Each structure stands twice: as C-alpha cells, then as structure tokens.
Amino acid sequence: MTIIKQNDLIDSITDALQFISYYHPVDFVQAVHAAYEKEESQAARDAMAQILINSRMCAEGHRPICQDTGIVNVFLKIGMDVQWDSDRSLVDMINEGVRRAYRHPDNVLRASIVEDPAGTRKNTGDNTPAVIHMEIVPGNTVDVQVAAKGGGSEAKAKFVMLNPSDNIVDWVVATVPTMGAGWCPPGILGIGIGGTAEKAMLMAKEALMEPIDIQDLKLRGPKNRVEELRLEIFNRVNELGIGAQGLGGLTTVLDVRIRDYPTHAANKPVAMIPNCAATRHTHFILDGSGPALQTPPSLDDWPDITWDAGPTARRINLDTVTREEITTWKPGETLLLSGKMLTGRDAVHKRIQDILARGESLPGGLDFRNRFIYYVGPVDAVRNEVVGPAGPTTATRMDKFTGLMLSKTGLIGMVGKAERGPVAIEAIKQHKAVYLIAIGGAAYLVSRAITHARVVAFAEMGMEAIHEFVVKDMPVTVAVDVNGTSVHQTGPARWQEIILQRKGRQ
Question: What is the CA radius of gyration of the chain?
Fold first, then answer.
C-alpha cells in the first residue's frame, strides 16, 4: 500500500503548471525548428522564427509562452493500492494546485476560467476549476498527465458521427480548412476514433500528449491501420498549403496522433482537436516518496535563431497615422508599429455595443477615432515588466462587432491573429480600414515591444479591460488591406498550388 500525502499532489500540480507555462516540450521545439529549416514561404518562415525565439525567451525568463495560459486538463491513473493522506477530496487537491500555480507571485498566470458559462460568465479569479479525468488501474502509484489548453485551439475542436463506410481522411482534409488559423499552426492534430461521442473527444485530447514522432514513423513505415492513417492525414493536410499562422507554406501540422476504441457497428465517431503553438503538457508519477517535481530541460535544446523585420519593413507612427496613409499598405507587408493603441476583446466589444444601443456615450477618455485596437487579454506584469506576455487573440471572435466599431467609433485599424471572416472583410472594405496580424504563440516576444501600459476603461473586467499600450517597433503583417484582400486567402491558395504542382511532377 502506497500512501500519497495531499501536499505531494498539490505541490506537484503547481510545479507542473508553472513548468509548462514557460517550457515547451523539447520534441515540439525540435519539430518546429525542423519545419522552419525546410520552409520556403518567407511569411511562414518568419512566423516560425518568432515562435522559436519567443520559446527560448520564455525558457530563459520563466514567463508564459502565450498570454492565454489555458484551461487546466488533468488525467490521472490511480493505482488500486494507493491510499490518500488528506482531508480534501482529490478534486479539491488538484484545484488547490492550480490555484497556487496561477497566483504564483514570480510568474503570475492569466486567470481565464469563467463560471455560469451560459449566464454571467464571471471570472473565477484563479483559473479553477480544472477539467479532471480519473481512471482506477492496478498498481501502487498515481500517474498524472497535466496540460494547459489554450482557448484558441480548443475552439477549433471538431466532432462528426460518420457512417461506417465513410472515409476518415477525407473528413479530416475537408475539415481542417474550416478551422482557420485561430489554432496557431503549425501544431499537432489529436484524433479519436470509435467508442461513443464523448469517448472519441476524450481520446483526441489524450492523443495530444503523446510524443511527436511522425518523422521516425515515415522512416520505418507503418505497422498498422492507425499508423497508415497518421501518415496519410499528415501528408494530405500539409498539402493544403495552409502553413504557419495560416499564411501559406509547406508545414501546417507537425504530427498527427490517433487513439481508437471499439465502437457500435452502426457508428464511426471521429473527434479532432488541435494543439497550438503554445503546446503545454507534462507528466509525473507519485509513488509515496514525496512530490514529483519537473526537471528543467537544457537551453542547448533550443535553436539559436535570430529574426528582424528586414530592410523593406515600413515604420508606422500610430499617433499620426491617417486614413489616407493606410490605403498605401499592401497585403503581406511587414509594418513596425510605434505609438499608442487601445486594446479590447469580445467582452469589451459587447459592452460597447450595449452602450451605443442605449444611446449613451463611451466612458470619458475612451476615443477610438483614427486609432487602432489590439485584440489582447494580457498576463499581469511581474517584477519590472510594463505588462506581462501580450500576444494576439483570435480575431474572428470580433467579426460580428467589426461593422459597428468601424462605423460608430471612428476606428481605422485592428490587430489580432488569424483570418477574418466574410462579414468582417466586407466591413473593412466598406470603411476602408485595415486588419493587421501579430504572431500567435509569441506573446512574450510581443510584450517586449510594449513600453507603457495603463487601463483606460472597464477596469472591473480584469484581463478583458481596455488598456492603452505604447509600443515601439511592434512587428505586424498587413492581413486585410483597405480593398478587402486577405493574405489568409491568397497565401494558402498559392502554396497549395505550388505543392500540388510539385506532387504532379514526382
């Protein structure tokens, strides 16, 4: 009989969550670097360079890889011969570990969890509760997998109940483009096949924590149907040309991991969940000897990569930019932004919509005329930081508010990540505005361009409040110009054609 003390589990959970907030799994770093080395699309190559640079900075500075520090997922395999020395439930112990990790004074993590999800959506303040799955197994240890899943990639989860004769690969290849770039490719696809609807989804999530080994699989060849599927999906998804950040390129997925389970003869449940450029997970085992703490990797495992915007990058003064000036910006062009910008995500946009619908004025000092808004919910600052990691939020969540903001507030530009949908693009074209992207998965790197930050409205909304950032040479790409041309449409289309042409010549 093994006795596990409550503080051993609490301390191990806390340590694991702090660890994965700033250390990528080494296999992920190596996979991104390999993709970077072979990438021919300059836009995708630049995006992966920033992701790798950000990853090393976070490993060195012990600050979050992404401003979205995730919803906590915990998977436990509890030995039948384990006894707990605790006055708390197992769920309470885990949530206490989460609470301590997200409130850690040296590395504060963003609290993103809201309760009453269909109603008030009030932030719980400490990122609890975690989503916990338990399994009782033979043995005398507790095996624990911990992950922090970002909202952008989680939002792209897909499920289908196929007919038994339907082709799984065809469904995946048809579905991945509908996910857009909000999951911050390149990443990993977790796929669950069989069981029931909920079992398939669970397997897809669990598959994301398996090692990246697709290149080894390609070298040795598949040994079963699941491995055949992995290779076929990997090749066909990358042939789509979506590329890093959806800008077009050779690598969209770094690996495809699949788990399966027996299912009803009439069914073929298939679930797909992507992991993003902030892939965060780790593993530990409690055996009664004390807490299981993580071992830091060597910084030698990170490639030494440099990146700059290049001689053609255009420097923009946000304090003096005009509507006439933005009409000269070209799709795909790199800009370096300096000056003041406002921030706000969908919760702020909804509040502004409600204020305007009541015929009221915006709070004093809040003026969007001829200004840019950055879709971001930053991490709280620690030590001498101006602001914590502050990478972009998926912009499609703001699409339904775009027409209102451009027509009623005087806003002329937006900064976020991923593509815009047809409604937003039409509004951008109609009002001769622009949409720019920063690199998702490079939040700490982006925050270094912010020289001053203050809350200007809705302070009670926490990370959703409107801030004013002063930035210096913040790198962005023109994603939608004043004519409505979107690089998330033109880039992948171009690279898919290139890839398929090459395949035809083989």
Answer: 23
**Cut 0.90: pTM above it:** yes
| Each residue's pLDDT tens digit, 25-42 | 999 999 999 999 999 999
Q: How far apart are CA 434 and CA 480, in angstroms?
A: 6
Distance of CA 297 to the CA centre of its chain: 22
For the stretch 309-345, what's the b/e string if a residue is b when 16 or more beta carbons lie within 10 angstroms of its beta carbon? beeebeebebeebeeeebeebebbbbbbbbbebbbbb
Ramachandran bin of 118, using left for φ above 0, alpha for ψ from -120 to 50, beta for the remaining angles? alpha
At residue 311, the pLDDT reads: 85
Residue 331 and residue 494: Cα distance in Å, rounded?
14
What residues contact residue 421 under an 8 Å CB cut-off, 6+ apart? Answer: 396, 399
Which has the closest alpha carbon to 20: 173, 145, 187, 161? Answer: 145
- In the chain, the domains with their CATH numbers are 1-24+65-149 (no CATH), 150-285 (no CATH), 314-491 (3.20.130.10)
Backbone angles phi, psi at 255, to 5 degrees: -165, 160
